[in-house]
Amino acid sequence: MTHTAVDVIRAKRDGHRLTDAQIDWVVDAYTNGVVADEQMSALAMAIFLNGMDRSETARWTRAMVDSGEKLTLDVGRPTVDKHSTGGVGDKITLPLAPLVATCGAAVPQLSGRGLGHTGGTLDKLESIPGWRAQLSVDEVVAQLRSVGAVICAATSGLAPADKKLYALRDVTSTVESIPLIASSIMSKKIAEGAEALVLDVKVGSGAFMKSLDQARALAEALVSIGVDHGLRISALLTDMSVPLGRAVGNAVEVAESVEVLQGNGPTDVVDLTVALAEEMLSRAGISASPRDVLASGEAYETWARMIRAQGGDPDAPLPTARHHHTVTAPADGYLTTLDAYAVGVAAWRLGAGRARKEDPVQPGAGILCLAKPGDRVTKDQPLLELHTDTPDAIPAALESLTNGGYEIGDTPPPTTNLLLDTIRG
Ligand code: URA
């Protein structure tokens, strides 16, 4: 049967289920330039408004995987990956990949650069002198065999349909659709070829999904797609209303990750790293105690080998910013609020993130959170330290922070859980 873009758009516009043949055709035809951007924009909006059911979403994902290459990771160990939906201070991949590798799995972590207020894993690692993000598929496989962990840029051959569609959704206000987000994330993860996957779905002001219900719906859609494609998969729902750890930026987050790998570091970063590692190892069928391995400092050795394998010097001093500005407590009391979104936007304005995908980032820019919610503070005590090479950016960063970004109260805030729920496929 021959298809036309107009028929497919009309079917979804009128609330019908797309057939497998329609989905395969439209994704392939769009990737190859037969369906025009304006037609795919209309279809994306129809999907945004009318949704896709579980089997349509699974088929859409399959079609995006089939638009490009699929890696075969025959590396002699169980392969398991992790994906975070993105948060502020979310450096967890950095300690997690070498930790899980030290425990016996192979971790292929194909990552992206940051856009907007959440940082990108590659931007953080690129602050390490000499470190290289771009690897060939042969280099990825060789490093998984020798070190057990690789964090690098996704090759352009993985799910090219998603690359094109994601850029289009960005400019047509069709990003926030659960079937489109879930198929976009999962097409890249399935193409990457790991046997198991653990998702960290963030909830709260600093996350894509602001409410637990939205995050749960996304997590369920992601897990369903994984199950339908034969992956061993789980999703952890975790709090992102407060920045993770004390460091938000690039080099500052690498430094904090190294502290964690050496058996120290902030409790929330350690706890989340361990929770994700336990889930990844269980999905990979490996019995180990990641908390003990992390505390022993053994995972640091894997980190150093992983960084060296990609040309980086793990012992080199990290870049620092030329200008610092300290925000102090206006009164005695308890820090009751430290809003992840406000801190993320402030770090981004200081130069840690980019507004357009071609912009450079400043490796030394970012924020150190010297107090966290629940801490008792005294008037004039330093709360936040702003780092930047461009001091003109400081007033805009302060504006984000002083409009409700942090608050001091007379009583401590209620304690919150970092791990909110787990969904297993
Ligand atoms: N991340 C992705 O990879 N795709 C989306 O659609 C949203 C976030």
Q: Can you walk through the features of this model?
A:
By secondary structure, this protein is α/β, with parallel strands linked by helices. It has three domains: 47 residues, Transferase, Pyrimidine Nucleoside Phosphorylase, Chain C (Transferase, Pyrimidine Nucleoside Phosphorylase, Chain A, domain 3), CATH 1.20.970.10; 236 residues, Nucleoside phosphorylase/phosphoribosyltransferase catalytic domain (Pyrimidine Nucleoside Phosphorylase, Chain A, domain 2), CATH 3.40.1030.10; 87 residues, Aldehyde Oxidoreductase, domain 3 (Alpha-Beta Complex). The strands form four sheets. A four-stranded mixed beta sheet has the order 1-4-5-13, sandwiched between helices. Strands 6-9-11-7 form a four-stranded antiparallel beta sheet, with helices on both faces. A three-stranded antiparallel beta sheet has the order 10-8-12. Helix 1 runs parallel beside helix 3, helix 4 packs across helix 9 and helix 5 packs across helix 14. The chain is globular, with a radius of gyration of 22 Å. The two termini are 36 Å apart. The chain binds uracil (URA). Uracil binds next to helix 9. Uracil (URA) binds next to helix 9.
